[in-house]
Amino acid sequence: MMAEIIRIATRTSPLAMWQAEHVAHRLQELHPGLQIEMVGMVTRGDKILDSPLSKIGGKGLFVKELEVGMLEGTADIAVHSMKDVPMEFPEGLHLPIILEREDPRDAFVSNRYSTLDALPEGAIVGTSSLRRQTQIRARYPHLQIRDLRGNVNTRLSKLDNGEYDAIILAAAGLIRLEFQPRITAYLSTEQSLPAIGQGAVGIECRRNDPRVENLLAPLRHAETTVRVRAERAMNQRLNGGCQVPVAGFAELEDGGLRLRGLIGFPDGSAVYTCEQRGCVVDPESLGIAVAEDLLAQGGDKVLASLGIHA
Ligand SMILES: NCc1[nH]cc(CCC(=O)O)c1CC(=O)O
């Protein structure tokens, strides 16, 4: 009998490779006889490095090529950072598995200053995310935001070259790549509400492929799944993608679910926040309720200013 095989499509950035290899190791532990193959792919998001993410546009910048691979049968599954996964999947694909979340917070990295609060007037902070930019501008109007692209390693080199006084990245990516010692300070979720899905990894595969889904099933983390579902429902109602300054973070609390959401103008002139509690059996309703509240407060004007219809 031929050994069973599973092929994992992955981007070739160090973080994507780490995540794909993490899934490979977990699968190998669960299924010792399984043969696992990595299929490296380059996405449009990896190629376009010279313009801000928020200006490139197009949903699923980092996932499209992997999806084509699965549909054409050159790969069976794709491992994604949930933060980068669009709401809609192509016909024939879905994302049934979300793994346990890593630290969801943003991290402050600087070679000269200890925290965001310690940065002097005019200091340059690097980030490529409208979400981080919006929250920093609102709270620290004396700082300058400058765009920062590239994979985690590139971003750290740009800081070390002296192009920035500090940079903000997801703690999860730094921790996974063993750069935890470079984290100068963790931003609290009050200081910087994380991105939808930040710190969580998901696995996309073909629908109607029970062989593969059975292999993956033990990797599913129930708590992370319910939290990310609430966050993504909120984001979907807000038409959020990486072009929209939206943050959302759900936690389990006393057996229920608490979701905090945020939307604001990228210049920091107004930021709207909302916190609500709901039931773990229906995370989508909670997400939609928070989104509706944010829209009513003024989030609709944020979207309109970006040319997006709520
Ligand atoms: N947009 C790129 C991206 N996608 C996922 C992560 C970090 C890992 C995660 O959130 O799971 C990063 C880098 C960053 O924001 O610093």
Structure characteristics:
alpha/beta; 24% strand; hydroxymethylbilane synthase activity; 310 residues; Porphobilin_deaminase_N; globular; Porphobilin_deaminase_cofac_BS; D-Maltodextrin-Binding Protein, domain 2; five-stranded mixed sheet; binds ligand PBG; 10 helices; 34% helix; Double Stranded RNA Binding Domain; 13 strands; EC 2.5.1.61
Secondary-structure element series:
EHEHHHEEEEHEHEHEEHHEEEH
Query: CATH H-level name of the largest domain... which superfamily?
Result: Periplasmic binding protein-like II
Provide the number of structural domains.
3
Q: What is the average of the pLDDT values?
A: 93
Approximate helicity band: 25-40%
Q: Helix count, per DSSP?
A: 10
Give a list of the ligands: the ligand NCc1[nH]cc(CCC(=O)O)c1CC(=O)O
Count of distinct strands: 13
Structural class: alpha/beta
Radius of gyration: 19 Å
Low-confidence stretches: none
Biggest sheet descriptor: 5 strands, mixed
| Major β-sheet strand ordering | 2-1-3-10-4
The CATH class of the largest domain:
Alpha Beta
Measured between the Cα atoms of the first and last residue, the distance is: 54 Å
Can you name the CATH architecture of the largest domain? Answer: 3-Layer(aba) Sandwich
User: Beta-strand percentage?
Assistant: 15-25%
